[in-house]
Amino acid sequence: MKKSLVAVGVIIALGVVWTGSSWYVGKEVEVRMADMVQKANEELTKALPDSGLVVSYENYQRGLLDSKMQLVIKTTADAKSPLLPVGENIIFNETISHGPLPGLTHFNFIPGMASVHSELAKNETTQPLFDMTQDKSLINGVTRVAFDGATSSVISIIPVDYTKDDTHFVFSGSTMNADVDAEGDKMTFGLDANSGSIKTKNEAGQPTEISFNGINITSDSQNSVADLRVGTQKASLKSLSLNVADKELAALNGLVLSANTELQADKKNIAIQTDYSLDALKAQGHDFGSGKLAIKLDNLDAEALSAVSQAYAQESQRLLQDPDIMQDPELYRKEMVEALVASFPQLLKGNPNISVSPLSWKNSKGEATFNLALALKDPQSASAPADSVEGALGQYITNLDTRLVIPFDMAIQLMSQVAQLEGASPAEAEKLANQQVKGLAAMGQMFHITKVENNSITASLTFANDKATLNGEAIPLRDLFGSLPFSLESDEGQGEAPAVSEPQAAPGSVAPEEAPQP
Description:
22-stranded antiparallel sheet; 42% strand; disordered N terminus; disordered C terminus
């Protein structure tokens, strides 16, 4: 009997402790909520300074074991470039399970301050989304809040199968994972979406479908010097296709984009490596090949990069608010280019290096490549003003080395495929492509820009110690610029273009037809 009383007493004591702890944690969550919302608004202001988006919480109802509230996203009345119309809002209903074991009802025994379940609320703004999902919340999330303030979230977008008029939208749904440390410095993110498609009709009444498969995005980053984030990001797409009248018009396969940003050993400069690759590009049954691009930048001064990024973002926002500029895309592009050029000298503070190794495109006949290595320097380090073209370039460039190789067979196949897309027969396209590629080679030789060697059009340019070399031959920069076609005032008085050198056929290949004389 005594043992039974002791057991009952222990259970009651545990219940009291659990209830008291849960109540206390619930109170603590409410206290911290204001800080969490404030941090969210600070990040929104940094990322979208003119959007006017603000987050607030309303109707907080604290219970013994859980609490409820609403998270409201809206736009301030003074927003310069509102993303959400003023007067409209997006609301999430939040259910907060208190710690110390907030996931106990889901058999999750990890201690924590709270577990927050979020779902989209229906109102006038979000009604179209509920129409697509048969009155279900399109977005659902669960966020665990640790005692130190770190968060771990799993956000789901449910599958959608929606038809309206001639449009049919299908989406497999997606899952997002996000982990943020207590200080908001370290962040990991992941997103997966299996498939989706939009079927509709074009202006000719033909059925048209755009579909994708296999989207994956990952990010692992943290704050570094000058409020810059460093880390790795990767995005991949298994396939994207466009079908018209039940025929594949175009398709991309195996698209991968990746980037790595890191703080260098000196703790002042940033290095960035970006890689792009595409396994296949197809159009109307033609396989156009695959491509890749690798770009690396290092010795980018972190303080200068941060200042330029902020200035560029502010200029972009300013232009977006000018209705005259926004009605003229060419003017907008021109203004943005000018802003970038104006800020370019700042980026040279750390004497950065740029490399492209390689930019390439490959088909069944060969691979065209372009490689570049460029070492820049801060012009402010120059001891005296330049008195020549070479000297002026020398104030910005320490070293330049470029190399271009375009195989004849590869280029002819590519141009032939383009001609067939435009309606030419295979035989006509092959003949036209031969003429175009040979003509391009002849023009390059006429202006002494390219050479023909090893069955390829080639070009190389180097610059170092105020001296330039074009295709292996030393050349004054003034002569180099004067030989370019865009620097000629008139074609009158120019000699005839030399015939293109006959390319040397690679073993086992068929020599291209002789080029027509210009």
